[in-house]
Amino acid sequence: MIAYFQTVLITAGIFALLAQGLNLHRGYTGLLNFGHVAFFAIGSYTMAIMIVTFEFGLLISFIAAMLAATIFGIVVALPAIRLRTDYLAIVTITIGEIFRLVIQSGPGVTELTRGPRGIRGYSNEFFFLREDLGLGFLDPQMYLLVIVWAAVIVVGLLLFLLLRSPWGRVLKGIREDEDAMRALGKNVTSYKIQSFAIGAAIAGLAGVLFAMDIGSLSPVAYLPLITFQAWTIMMLGGMGTHLGPIIGSIIFWSIFNGTLFIPDSIVTGAEAAYLRQIGVGALIMLIIIVRPQGILGSREEMVLDK
Amino acid sequence: MQLSFGGLKAVDGATLEVEPGKITALIGPNGAGKTSLFNVVTGFYKADGGAISFDGGSIMGRRPHSIAKRGLVRTFQLTKSLGRMSVLENMMVAAPGQAGEKVFAAWVVPWMINRQEKENHRKAIELLELFNLIDKKDDYAATLSGGQRKLLELARALMMEPKMILLDEPMAGINPTLGARLLEHVGELRDRGMTFVLVEHDMDVVMRVSEHVIVMANGKVITQGSADEVRQNQEVIDAYLGTGGGAVDEALDEVFEEDARG
Predict the structure, then answer these.
(1) Does B35 touch chain A (CB under 8 A)?
(2) Which ipTM was obtained for this model?
(3) Is B77 exposed, middle or buried (0-12, 13-18, 19+ CB in 10 A)?
(4) Whole-prediction pTM value?
(5) Could you tell me if residue A277 is inside a domain?
């Protein structure tokens, strides 16, 4: 039972971060990003490569991972930002897939990413560090849980401060009507890039923690499914709300891992894996029908048109 | 100034000048290029050729936000309220030079933001009171009526402390009472030295408020002058009616009214 809660909370924390980044893009700025998994992956891989191949320290690798995600966010944003709504969605989903295929089999790239064989052995220092942090009394899973949720809280607070400031107000304005914001003297392109970059950096951080959790990296861990899970979490919790991604993530992963409680005599482990996916699909439909604004979203905002 | 979409010349050599501190009306039949001209002047469309200067500097080819920052602000034919933000937020977001609009400023200089927010809040409340929107300040902008949105758009433009405002059909779809109030505000602001250009189809409005009328047709300026001069001008009549329009004033009024309805 404890193991169940640990697993749920670690994954939920990581995906809460991932969904926070997406919420910044979609919930606050109105950017339809369907390639979020790419930022997640670049965080994981940059950290792992820095540590394993180039033998950098943990802290530098952490920072490099977020920086790489930020830069990649800007690079993606530059061409993509000129596109609106569905067109942006199509481009971002493509970028996400291209990125995964490149780390899997890109010529030259696979020397670093080791293609489908993946990378391992990058997480030792992270787990050894718990002695130095005075968290030696925790077992590795518990320690990871503490670190993940510390990150969730810090990022949540920092985002809260940003989004309630005039900067966040401009983002919301862009979500509502970007031409109106141009007419009000706001450099819309620049704000969209900033939003993209910061959301990507948060996804990169989520990717680093995800890598610590799974222990070895391979491209199959970064399917577009991850993006859609983040979307489901965001919609479940409520788009454009501060706590939505966090609450959405906890609920989502409780349900997702809930198949553990079904006795083997009814559903085998292999069957349960499919059952989970069906559950996710059903959950998405349920949100749309019953509470399209999500748990924390406002119904009034939902029904108002622009 | 020139602008074309493919083979269509939307603005075809229109040349005009707007005097500071006055209300200038831009009229012309549908498709004359009035709104296109607005879009070019405010940077939303890129002109193919020509020159635009404002307040002693060229603004040709500049991007919309930088033109707006210089004090040349526009409103839209179809109002653009920020629907799922409150009326007050709509106002606050428009304030110029906000330190808090820089990313991370909220982490670094929160006291500076607080101070500016207080000042902008005071200004926003003042304007909302003036425009009789104060009771709506916490409502979503999307819940306002069409006329109230027009008022909000003008009030929001004023938050930016502009030198000149371009109003694209400010009276379209607005009830006469709100319309009259909007025009009153425009008149008062003009008296305080602000410059206005309005595209308008309602000739009563044009004749009543504007000191200068510019008539466009087929992307060119065909004539300009005081309201009365323009009314008598043969070219204007031709542009609206085709050549050989009969009982001048009567026919003109009819067409203008039709235009206003359409």
Answers:
(1) no
(2) 0.85
(3) middle
(4) 0.88
(5) no
